[in-house]
Amino acid sequence: MKIVALVKQVPDTETKIKLTADGKALETAGIKYVVNPYDEFAIEEAVRIKEKNSGSTVIAVGMGPERMKEALRTALAMGADEGIYIAEENLPGKDGLITARLLAEAIKSLSPDLVICGKQAIDDDEGRVGPALSHYLELPFVANVTKLTVESGKLNLHRELEGRTEVMEVALPAVVSAQKGLNEPRYPSLINIMQAKKKTINELKPEQLLSNDELNKLSTLEETGLNLPPAREKGRKLQGDPEQMVKEIVTFLTETVKIS
Amino acid sequence: MPLALTEEQSIIRETIGKFAKEELLALAKGIDASEQISPEAYSLLTGLNLYGIFASAESGGAELDNLSYLLIMEEIGYASGTLALILAAHNSLVVYPLMKALHPELKSIQKALAQGTAAGALAHLETDSDLLSACLKTQAQESAGEYLINGEKTMVIAPDNTGYYLVSAQLNQEPALFLVEKSAPGLTIGSPIPTIGARGAGIRNLEFHNVKTPYCVAKGSQAQELITDSVLHYFLALAAINAGIIKNCLASATAYAKERKQFGQKIINFPLVQNHIIKMAESLQVIQLLVHQAAMETHPGAWRQKVAYARLYSGSAGIKSAISAIQVHGGYGYSKEYPIERYFRDAQMVQSMGGNEELAKKFLSDVLISGGEL
User: Fold this and answer.
1) What's the CATH superfamily of A2-218?
2) ipTM
3) In the list A77, A118, B309, B358, which could disulfide-bond A188, CB 3.0-4.6 Å?
4) A140 and A175 in contact (C-beta within 8 Å)?
């Protein structure tokens, strides 16, 4: 089997988010970047399928700035065989559709049996790339998978929903997105980290995949600004007669918070 | 992190850091309380090749560079002083000198050590000597292609999985190093000595009564140099471990100070609490710089001095930072409810198990007295 695992690099969850002075971007100084946790499930699952099906290969594919290659290298250390890096440069805008389309162009020529991605990236939480990619590849898509088994030309899948599990079957090739619970991602060993150094990461530029005209057509979103959530207002403490306090709370809820 | 890292170093630090926080930190309290390291804990460490960090690929090691090794020690030190100490002792004091010894007959043993199927322990310290000196009372005699060893060793870091001892002894009035199997007849392995920190590391005394071994690893000045270099290599690892312990003290104290309210406000707002926290952060930054500076030094003489500085500074800075973290926690810092007391006990490990501070001072003084530059 040929399996593609999508990788994105995101700020570590412990990072304190700050904005640049012009308020248009995240302040990147001092940010520690990690592999998107949902993508770790995707890489791990791809590697497990490979280990169970001899002769399989796993290709890690990712797009982003130069530092993104470190995330691909981590995927290689976890067991992916090769990487494809698409440089995030000379693009008409920042848009998940552009990312999905470029990824699709790079993946199409590989003719994979299965594409696994994380259900979303934990930085922008858009969750658009997976479904959009399946659209551009013209392949079926199953989201939020928590269990996956490969069976002669098809996949058996579990999706956890509230209070129940949806069991599905999908023909290969297909695109699926990984949800927490799918597996326990491994820690790459030191030897595997060193061996990953010898594996290849092929670099592609957007213009090698799509013409500028086509890219421009895709750019529908413009990011106009970023705002931090408002600081929490100071709480008020009531004191005195309980009956009076209850009245005050009710007045506050109906008139200030406007609960009807 | 003071210095720029390569892609691999950065992935290694990231991976081991995550592994230490997610897996080892949860085990650390139990190891400390029970003074036991479980077989599962050992297999977690071997699974990531932590017993062969810089051993050759041929012997099953990862062949990492010095800085990577020290980054790993810092990350593991963050989670568990005991686990960091046993890994530093195994890698620096046994795998490292054996690699340099290049003894063809030792290949299978080197493999077992690098893969962690058996750990190694250096039996060098005696009651009448220090870690860097070679005035040994333990004696070795050559007889029919084998060596007979007689003597006593103290404070050997030998956890339960130790399979081999690297033993220093006098052979024809010169220092020499021998490799001895744990099951060798005549070798008495003492019970672990209860210690303040690094509990579970299996620190013990050994007695040799006509212990036979065919393996002489090095003799004469080569043996002396191997011992000195390995011990300094280990000192540097201990400095990195203390950076990890301080990092945890800093993180715990900062988190606590941001939560804990007293006199109507969070204690992080008090300048005297901030002073404790800034001092810890400063120590961490300085140790990292000293450790990295030594790791990058290639000239042997300069390397030894830089290691001595890192050892000297990190020992007292570690214990001071742990005391600061206790102070920030107020009375709770003195209780066993919080893990700070363990960091405090483990920080002393570097002062006590890494040669004493005076040894590093003496080393630097000797350089100065002999007309060298400090």
Assistant:
1) HUPs (3.40.50.620)
2) 0.91
3) A77
4) yes
Whole-number Å distance between alpha carbons of A218 and A24:
21
What does the pLDDT average to over B338-359? 88
Strand partners, B207: B152, B188
Three-state DSSP at A17 gives coil
Residue B214 DSSP symbol: S
Residue A64 to residues A6, A74, A126, A208, B211, Cα–Cα distance (Å): 12, 15, 16, 15, 62
Residue A170 scores a pLDDT above 60: yes
Identify the residue among A190, A192, A198, A199 best suited for mutation to test binding to B, counting B beta carbons within 10 A and taking the highest. Answer: A190
Question: Per-residue confidence at B102, pLDDT binned at 50, 70, 90?
Answer: low
- Give the span between the Cα atoms of A121 and A146, in whole angstroms: 17
Domain ranges of chain A: 2-218
Strand partners, A202: A84
Measured between beta carbons, the chain B residues lying within 8 angstroms of A7 are none
- B61 interaction partners in chain A (CB closer than 8 Å): 191
- Nearest CA of chain A to the CA of B285: how many Å? 15
Window B:36-95, CB contacts with A under 8 Å: 47-50, 52-53, 57, 61-64, 72
Name the residue among B8, B48, B62 with its Cβ closest to that of A187: B48
Q: Tally helices (H) and strands (E) across chain B.
A: 12, 10
| A189 closest CB neighbour out of B7, B8, B48 | B48
* CB atoms near residue A100 (< 10 Å): 24
* Percentages (nearest 5) of helix, strand, coil residues in chain B: 60, 15, 25
**Cβ contact (<8 Å) for B14 and A74?**
yes
Note the pLDDT tens digit of each residue in B277-333: 999 999 999 999 999 999 999 998 889 899 999 999 999 999 999 999 999 999 999
Which residues from B are below 8 Å from A34, CB to CB?
14
Nearest to A190 among B18, B23, B49 (CB): B49
Q: What region does B233 belong to: left with phi over 0, alpha with psi -120 to 50, or beta?
A: alpha
Q: In this model, does residue B354 exceed pLDDT 90?
A: no
Residue A188: list chain B partners with CB under 8 A.
Answer: 11, 15
What is the DSSP secondary structure assignment for residue A170, as one 8-state letter?
A: E
B8:A194 CB<8 A:
yes
Q: Are A73 and B11 within 8 A, CB to CB?
A: yes
pLDDT at A80 over 90: yes
* C-alpha–C-alpha distance, residues B77 and B239, integer Å: 10
Q: Please provide the size of chain B in residues.
A: 374
